[in-house]
Structure formats: structure tokens, C-alpha cells
Write a structure and sequence with these properties.
Elements: H1 3-14, H2 32-43, E1 48-52, E2 61-67, E3 70-76, E4 82-86, E5 100-103, E6 108-109, E7 116-117, E8 123-125, E9 143-149, E10 152-156, H3 164-167, H4 172-175, E11 185-188, E12 192-194, H5 198-206, H6 211-214, H7 219-222, E13 228-233, E14 238-243, H8 248-255, E15 265-271, E16 275-280, E17 283-293, E18 296-305, H9 317-337, H10 353-366, E19 375-376, H11 380-385
Antiparallel strand pairs: 1-10, 2-3, 2-5, 3-4, 4-9, 6-7, 7-8, 9-10, 11-18, 12-18, 13-14, 13-19, 14-15, 15-16, 16-17, 17-18
Helix pairs in contact: 1-10, 5-9
The protein binds FE2/S2 (inorganic) cluster and fe (ii) ion.
């Protein structure tokens, strides 16, 4: 199918409301022309989650990654602030730092001809200085927008983009009772490669409909599908939630006998294109999905939590690894299905309203349309009231 026809079909399918929403055209998950359009209209324009501020505690700590083809560095500067720099030498374009976490002592030194940049991206030193005349101020590393929310770091490659707070407008009051801004500790894992399209990984992370089947012996025992519900959302972000099988003893220790029953619930925060987090009393676990190509996605996960983890994540590393393996297997299995040309997907059900929101996110960005209006379900007022 020609790329433009496929993109039009994708936009048409993605903007449907819940009542008429179906799975997207399969080819939208395998076609690199679609990914190129997503890179241009989504990953180069939107706030994209990259890591946690707590993963870069000291000056010189950095996280280097490639975002939709752009090598970037998130760096803790000498001034204590995070900044985002192009990970590309201003001389002849060599990638400066290897991907992953690391620390720069004094300079970012290019491995090719050793031009050296300070942590703020300014060009500081050039070997054979006496023979080489280069205007240093004209060779500073490019900078991108970078902002934090509850200790999570987001990057935006578009210099004209509205602030992250605009994108997150209205979300905080629903989360307030869990006080995520007080979580001071964090842990993060290394990136894994999943052989699946980034949209499949995001859709899977967002919806709780599959828990009873895919995670019968893991997540379902803690947060069952039957107890999951929609809270509030739009094309911009979605909150879903559910009751957990959290041990009451822990919460009673913190609050005494009377506390909001909602502390035994979780809120799943879906913030496309790259962030899904599960907030509970005492912890905020997250997953990020960054596309590599149409069939390959880098997945990373981690959490922020309170110092003592009081009532925090009940999930051991082993538990998390187990349900991640289940998700990876299912996402890769669906990806195989996406190559079929003689079949098509079906109706999205009520429990998949969050997936519909995500599709509308795609449609609004690919078609340059305004955000869809916020929809609140019956649990929304309870979270706003914290009771
Ligand atoms: S390409 Fe970096 S110093 Fe030459
Ligand atoms: Fe899952």
C-alpha cells in the first residue's frame, strides 16, 4: 500500500471515538514510512520521557540515548541543573558519548580529533590549538528543552514546543493523595530490546484488560482485571486505576485504623508517546518505550519511591521480571500478526478506552488537530477528593 494511503487510513482509524473504535491497520505497526511520520510529528515535537532525575545525582552524570534518530545527552551540569545536549561533535559529526549512563569528569572529549566540550556544551579545548583557528563560541553543542515532573525527566526536541506543564495540565490533582512529589529514591534498569512496534508496547502497558490472561499468576493476583476502571483522560494523557491486593497491615501502620480505601488502589498514568507509570501509595513504577525501527523498541523500567518504601511497591524484582517477560512475549506475538495482509483487527471494547485515547493522541499529532476533550468517569471525583 502506498505510504500516503496507509497514513490516511491510520489517521482515520485512530480518531474514532470508543463507540466505533477498531484496531489500527496492521501495516501501521510494520511500515517504516509510518515510523518516519511518527518521528517527525511525534518524537521530534512532543515531550518524551527519558530517565529519572535521581538517576543523575551529581555534576557530570549523564544519560546518552538516541531519540527518533537524534543522539542526545541528558547531563547534570556544574550548576546542579539538568540540560539536554546533542551528542554530536560540532567538528565533523562524530557521536561523542556511548549510549547509556556514565560520568564525565571535566570534558566531553570527541573520540575522533579530541575537541573537548564542557558539561554545558561549550567548546573548551582543541588540540594543536596554536595551529588551529576556530571560533569556539560558534561551535557549542546544540541544546534541547528538558523538564522534570515528579522526578521524571522529559526531553523535547522542538524549540517551539509549549512547556511540559501545558501538556500535563489538569493531571496533578488526581494524583495528589499519593504525594508522588515526595518520593525521593529511585531505581532504574538497563534498556531491553523488544521485537515489537513501539505502539504495541505502549498499548499493552496501558490497558488492564489482558492482566487476567497474560499475567494470570503474576499481576492478576495483585491487581485483577475485574477491579480495574477508567478514571479520566483525553488525547493528552489518561488515568486508569484499580483495586490492589495490598496487605492492609502496612497501611494501618502508617495511618492508623482509618485511612482512605483509595490508598489500596493504583493509578496507571499513560502519557504518550513514551511513558506509562503505575502510582500507588509509596511508589511510582514506570516503563518507557522508544522506537528503534518499526519492529524494534527499547524498553526501560524503573521506579521512584519513599525512603522507607512504607506501603511501597509490593513487587520484588523477580515479580517484575516475570510479568515483563510475559508482556514481551505477547507484544512480540502480536507483532508477528501485524505482517498479515489478508486479515484485519476488530472492535476495541469498553475496557480499552485508554487505547482509544492513545490512538486519538496519534491522530491529533499526525493530523495537526487540537486535543480531544477530557472525559471523566465515576471514580474521578473520588480521587480528586482523596476519599
Ligand atoms: S569529529 Fe569531533 S573532533 Fe573531529
Ligand atoms: Fe501486561
Amino acid at each position: 500500500m502506498p505510504a500516503q494511503t496507509l497514513l490516511n487510513e491510520l489517521k482515520q482509524a485512530a480518531m474514532q471515538p470508543l463507540e466505533t473504535a477498531h484496531s489500527l491497520p496492521f501495516a501501521a505497526y510494520t511500515d517504516n514510512a509510518v515510523l518516519a511520520a511518527e518521528a517527525q510529528h511525534i518524537f521530534h515535537r512532543e515531550w518524551v520521557f527519558v530517565c529519572m532525575a535521581g538517576e543523575l545525582p551529581d555534576a557530570g552524570d549523564y544519560y546518552a540515548l538516541t531519540l527518533a534518530g537524534e543522539p542526545i545527552i541528558v547531563m547534570r551540569g556544574e550548576d546542579g541543573h539538568l540540560c539536554t545536549l546533542a551528542n554530536i561533535c560540532r567538528h565533523r559529526g562524530t557521536v561523542l558519548l556511548d549510549a547509556g549512563f556514565g560520568r564525565v569528569d571535566k570534558y566531553i572529549v570527541c573520540p575522533y580529533h579530541a575537541w573537548a566540550y564542557a558539561k554545558d556544551g561549550s567548546l573548551q579545548a582543541i588540540p594543536f590549538n596554536e595551529q588551529i583557528h576556530v571560533d569556539r563560541t560558534g561551535h557549542t553543542l546544540s541544546r534541547f528543552q528538558c523538564a522534570e515532573w515528579n522526578g521524571m525527566v522529559f526531553v523535547n526536541l522542538d524549540p517551539q514546543a509549549a512547556p511540559l506543564s501545558t501538556r500535563l495540565q489538569g493531571i496533578d490533582p488526581y494524583l495528589a493523595m499519593f504525594e508522588p512529589q515526595t518520593f525521593s529514591h529511585c531505581s532504574g534498569g538497563t534498556a531491553e530490546t523488544w521485537l515489537t512496534n513501539w505502539k504495541l508496547a505502549m498499548e499493552n502497558a496501558m490497558e488492564s484488560y489482558h492482566l487476567f490472561k497474560v499475567h494470570e499468576n503474576t499481576l492478576e493476583t495483585y491487581s485483577p482485571t475485574r477491579q480495574a476502571y477508567y478514571i479520566a483522560g483525553s488525547s493528552e494523557w489518561t488515568l486508569t486505576g484499580g483495586a490492589t491486593a495490598r496487605k492492609k497491615g502496612l497501611l494501618e501502620k502508617v495511618f492508623g485504623a482509618s485511612y482512605s480505601e483509595l490508598y489500596e488502589h493504583y493509578i496507571l498514568v499513560s502519557l504518550p508517546p513514551s511513558f506509562v507509570g503505575v502510582l500507588t501509595y509509596g511508589s511510582f513504577g514506570w516503563l518507557s518505550a522508544h522506537p528503534v525501527d518499526a519492529g524494534t523498541t527499547l524498553i526501560r523500567s524503573g521506579a521512584t519511591f519513599t525512603k522507607d518504601g512504607s506501603g511501597g511497591s509490593p513487587q520484588s524484582d523477580e515479580f517484575t521480571r516475570a510479568f515483563f517477560a510475559e508482556d514481551q512475549q505477547m507484544c512480540e506475538r502480536v507483532q508477528t500478526g501485524m505482517s498479515a495482509t489478508l486479515s484485519r483487527g476488530g472492535k476495541l471494547v469498553d475496557m480499552e478506552r485508554v487505547v482509544v485515547d492513545f490512538h486519538q493522541f496519534l491522530a491529533t499529532r499526525l493530523s495537526r488537530q487540537p486535543a480531544t476533550p477530557l472525559f471523566e468517569d465515576s471514580m474521578a471525583q473520588r480521587f480528586l477528593a482523596g476519599a
